[in-house]
Amino acid sequence: MNLYSTNLFLDLVVFALVFQVALLLLLALSIAIRIDAEESSGVCDFKPGLKPRPHSVSILEFGAVGDGKTLNTLAFQNAIFYLKSFTDKGGAQLYVPPGKWLTGSFSLTSHLTLFLEKGAVILGSQVLFHCLLSRICFPSFVLFDLFLVKR
After folding, report:
1. 20 to 30 A from 128, CA-CA: which of 10, 25, 30, 94?
2. Angle value at C-alpha 48, between 47 and 50, nearest 5 degrees
3. Cβ neighbours, 10 Å, residue 121
4. Which helix (H) or strand (E) element contains residue 80?
5. Under a CB-based contact definition with an 8 Å cutoff, are residues 101 and 120 in contact?
6. CATH class of 55-150
7. pLDDT of res. 93
């Protein structure tokens, strides 16, 4: 036997051992999955406990209209600005009732829960001017003479 055939033989032995170990691990994993599946109903039982925020307001309190036609950007921005004051007091929740809420862009903040009731849909305005009015759609740009100019 020469050196080349010895190295090839050792490579084959190592490969066979690695393959056997991998096969045993896959077999053990499949058995563990089968055992767990027999005990499970197939439905996730994990229910995260959501702590309610101590302060809550409805978007309706800020004049929003959920008809899908009225622009509600200012209402969302004002509500979020107001709720920022509760950040150090346990946070706050902005409640959005069922309806279609048309809006330009707005920024969410930490310690704020945006709660959409079943049937509530937030529609992003497709009109670029609505986004420009909010001045937060493109934070790396500034509005200058109705043109977007990169800072």
Report:
1. 94
2. 130
3. 13
4. helix 73-83
5. yes
6. mainly beta
7. 94
Question: Residue written as tokens 């310690």?
Answer: 111
Confidence tier at 81 by pLDDT (50, 70, 90): very high
The answer to whether residue 97 scores a pLDDT higher than 60 is yes
Q: What's residue 146's pLDDT?
A: 38
Q: In this predicted structure, what is the pLDDT of residue 145?
A: 34
User: β-pairing, 112-116 with 141-144?
Assistant: unpaired
Q: How many CB atoms lie within 10 A of CB 32?
A: 10
Cα 121 to the chain's mean position, in Å?
16
Domain boundaries, the chain: 1-47, 55-150
d(CA 117, CA 20): 54
Instruction: Provide CB contacts within 8 A for 132, sequence distance 6+.
Output: 138, 143
Closest CA to 59 of 105, 96, 111, 112: 96
* DSSP characters over 7-18: HHHHHHHHHHHH
Q: Are 150 and 96 in contact (CB under 8 A)?
A: no
Best CA proximity match to 92, nearest among 59, 133, 123, 69: 59
